[in-house]
Amino acid sequence: MALHRLFHLSSLLRSAVSVTLRRNIGLSAVVFNKARDLDPVQKLFLDKIREYNAKSKTAGGVFEAGPAYQKNLTEEMTKLQRLYGGGDLTKFPQFKFPGEFETLKSC
């Protein structure tokens, strides 16, 4: 009986150590990959995205957007306002449900 418990405890300890080692190896692999230099193509891609992001922030919108883009944007916004009843399409709509919440509060 005692030998059976010892084997059972040994099995539990072995599985706990196994799980811990797998987690640590998985974590260290992620850390190692982040610390390692990127592939040159990935690095170039990320650098271009960061550069475009910085230029877009300084431009206050879409970077290198010409008059044709602005014309197309205003035409599409006008079309959407006509289709969906106007309003400011650059903001998230506010939904109001009068009476619905009072019914739920009384429950």
Automatic annotation (TrEMBL):
<comment type="similarity">
    <text>Belongs to the eukaryotic ATPase subunit F6 family.</text>
</comment>
<dbReference type="GO" id="GO:0005743">
    <property type="term" value="C:mitochondrial inner membrane"/>
</dbReference>
<keyword id="KW-0472">Membrane</keyword>
<keyword id="KW-0496">Mitochondrion</keyword>
<dbReference type="GO" id="GO:0015986">
    <property type="term" value="P:proton motive force-driven ATP synthesis"/>
</dbReference>
<keyword id="KW-0138">CF(0)</keyword>
<comment type="subunit">
    <text>Component of the ATP synthase complex composed at least of ATP5F1A/subunit alpha, ATP5F1B/subunit beta, ATP5MC1/subunit c (homooctomer), MT-ATP6/subunit a, MT-ATP8/subunit 8, ATP5ME/subunit e, ATP5MF/subunit f, ATP5MG/subunit g, ATP5MK/subunit k, ATP5MJ/subunit j, ATP5F1C/subunit gamma, ATP5F1D/subunit delta, ATP5F1E/subunit epsilon, ATP5PF/subunit F6, ATP5PB/subunit b, ATP5PD/subunit d, ATP5PO/subunit OSCP.</text>
</comment>
<dbReference type="InterPro" id="IPR008387">
    <property type="entry name" value="ATP_synth_f6_mt"/>
</dbReference>
<keyword id="KW-0406">Ion transport</keyword>
<dbReference type="GO" id="GO:0045259">
    <property type="term" value="C:proton-transporting ATP synthase complex"/>
</dbReference>
<keyword id="KW-0999">Mitochondrion inner membrane</keyword>
<feature type="signal peptide">
    <location>
        <begin position="1"/>
        <end position="18"/>
    </location>
</feature>
<comment type="function">
    <text>Subunit F6, of the mitochondrial membrane ATP synthase complex (F(1)F(0) ATP synthase or Complex V) that produces ATP from ADP in the presence of a proton gradient across the membrane which is generated by electron transport complexes of the respiratory chain. ATP synthase complex consist of a soluble F(1) head domain - the catalytic core - and a membrane F(1) domain - the membrane proton channel. These two domains are linked by a central stalk rotating inside the F(1) region and a stationary peripheral stalk.</text>
</comment>
<keyword id="KW-0813">Transport</keyword>
<protein>
    <recommendedName>
        <fullName>ATP synthase-coupling factor 6, mitochondrial</fullName>
    </recommendedName>
</protein>
<keyword id="KW-0732">Signal</keyword>
<dbReference type="GO" id="GO:0015078">
    <property type="term" value="F:proton transmembrane transporter activity"/>
</dbReference>
<dbReference type="InterPro" id="IPR036204">
    <property type="entry name" value="ATP_synth_f6_sf_mt"/>
</dbReference>
<dbReference type="Pfam" id="PF05511">
    <property type="entry name" value="ATP-synt_F6"/>
</dbReference>
<comment type="function">
    <text>Mitochondrial membrane ATP synthase (F(1)F(0) ATP synthase or Complex V) produces ATP from ADP in the presence of a proton gradient across the membrane which is generated by electron transport complexes of the respiratory chain.</text>
</comment>
<keyword id="KW-0375">Hydrogen ion transport</keyword>
